[in-house]
Here is the input.
Amino acid sequence: MAGRVEGKVALITGAAQGLGEAAARMLAREGARVAVTDVNVAGAERVVASINEDRSGAAIAVGHDVTSETEWVEALNATERAFGGLHVLVNNAGIGLTKDLEDVTLQEWRQVHAIDLDGVFLGCKLAIPLIARSVKETGLGGSIVNISSISGIIAGHNMAAYNSAKAAVRHLSKSVALYCARKGYGIRSNSVHPVFIATPILDPLVARYGRDAAYAKLGRQVPLGHIGEPDDIAYAVLYLASDESKFVTGAELKVDGGISAM
Here is the structure.
């Protein structure tokens, strides 16, 4: 049986660990060839080696700072050289910042927005022409999946920079969706909004309270009573990357254990 993204090529940023790694593994298992990009090149190579053990030649690793337009061009060119095109872009790379607004420096504000928002803008802008060509050549649907956060919908008293950047990703995704639809590119654009997920982004809290206590503390805020797993988000990415979601664009998919329903 063919996989759900059989024949597609995907580029996933920030894929050396966490949500990006889970998405890369999921898409590869379901038939895609994947470019695993990250500033952590050793981590990306580790993920790629593991993927290629199961499907030889299914993945490549690319060193990639998402705030650099030059490195975006290089990453896209490397993907096209290796796999002949691109159908799916997963803008996952991001950082968090938990800090009182009055204590946030301008440098910190700009860094969060550079990675969490500007990197998404650059990815969409620069990948759209390649995705459009690939869609035309192969007949397979194109998809941009931007990993936002439930924090892009629900604000926190000590997360101003992160809230701002992730909220902007949500709205940018809608603008990209409308643009691509108007151009007739065959590219959809959607955002995914996770709540607390067991990834390294929670490491500061784990260091403070211990793993079990930290996860329990966060889980008490979620109606389902626990935090999520990386594959919970990877399955959402898989759906949006596949042609099962061919009539879904400009939408936000909340994977949040019900917290936004409160």
Remarks:
- The mean pLDDT is 97.
